[in-house]
Specification:
about 200 residues; mainly alpha; about 65% helix
C-alpha cells in the first residue's frame, strides 16, 4: 500500500522517501523497523475508516521521531516553548509524544495540527481524538511486531470498531501500569474514563 502513496506537499514538503531518510537518521534500525510497521497498520486502518492515507503515512512515520532523543533535549524544548512544567515530572514515555510533536514541527517542517495532535496523543491518548489520532494510537499498539495477550483480538477490533479498540487499549494500558505500581500520567486516566464505554 505504501507504493500507492504519493506525497502532495500538503503535510510534508518532500517525498515519502525523503521523509524516510530523515526519520531513519533520527533513530536506531530497531525503532525504524517499528515505525515502518506502524505505517503499514495505520494505512490499513486509514483505508478502512476513510482517513486520508497521506496524513496517516506522515503521522505514522513521525510518531516516534523523538523517541531516542536525550532527556536534556526534551527538557530544553519544554522550557523553550513554555510547555506545561508538570511535564518535567515525567519522562520519555510521555515526552516523546507530547514534546516530540514540537520537534517534528520545528525540525521536519510538519505543521498540520491533526498530524501533530496524533503524535502528541499516541501514547497517552486524549479525551477527544480525531480519527487520525485514534488510528495512530491503535497502529502503534497493534502493529504486526507486537505480541501480548489479546493483541489479535484488539487488532481485529480496530478494524471493526475503532473507538472500542481505543477504549480497550486505554483500559489494558492502565491495568498494566497499575500492576507495575508506577504513576499514571493524568491524561491517560482521563482517556480511559472517556473511552472505556465505547
Amino acid at each position: 500500500m505504501t507504493d500507492e502513496i504519493k506525497y502532495t506537499g500538503r503535510y510534508y514538503a518532500g517525498s515519502r522517501n525523503e521523509l524516510l531518510e530523515q526519520i531513519k537518521a533520527a533513530m536506531s534500525d530497531y525503532r525504524f523497523e517499528h515505525v515502518l510497521r506502524v505505517e503499514a497498520m495505520a494505512l490499513q486502518l486509514a483505508s478502512k475508516w476513510n482517513v486520508d492515507l497521506e496524513a496517516a503515512s506522515v503521522a505514522a512515520l513521525t510518531h516516534d521521531y523523538a523517541k531516542e532523543r536525550s532527556d536534556a533535549d526534551f527538557i530544553a524544548v519544554i522550557k523553550a516553548k513554555a510547555l506545561d512544567l508538570d511535564l518535567l515530572n515525567w519522562g520519555n514515555n510521555v515526552w516523546h509524544g507530547i514534546v516530540g510533536a514540537e520537534m517534528v514541527q520545528d525540525e521536519l517542517g510538519i505543521s498540520d495540527q491533526q498530524i501533530l495532535d496524533a503524535i502528541r496523543q499516541h501514547t497517552t491518548g486524549a479525551v477527544v481524538m480525531t480519527s487520525l489520532a485514534q488510528i495512530i494510537y491503535m497502529a502503534d499498539y497493534v502493529e504486526v511486531g507486537r505480541d501480548f495477550p489479546g493483541v489479535e483480538e484488539v487488532r481485529a477490533l480496530a478494524l471493526t470498531d475503532l473507538a472500542a479498540s481505543v477504549g480497550w487499549q486505554a483500559g489494558h494500558t492502565l491495568e498494566y501500569l497499575v500492576k507495575k505500581r508506577v504513576p499514571v500520567y493524568p491524561l491517560s486516566l482521563l482517556t480511559y474514563n472517556a473511552w472505556a464505554t465505547h
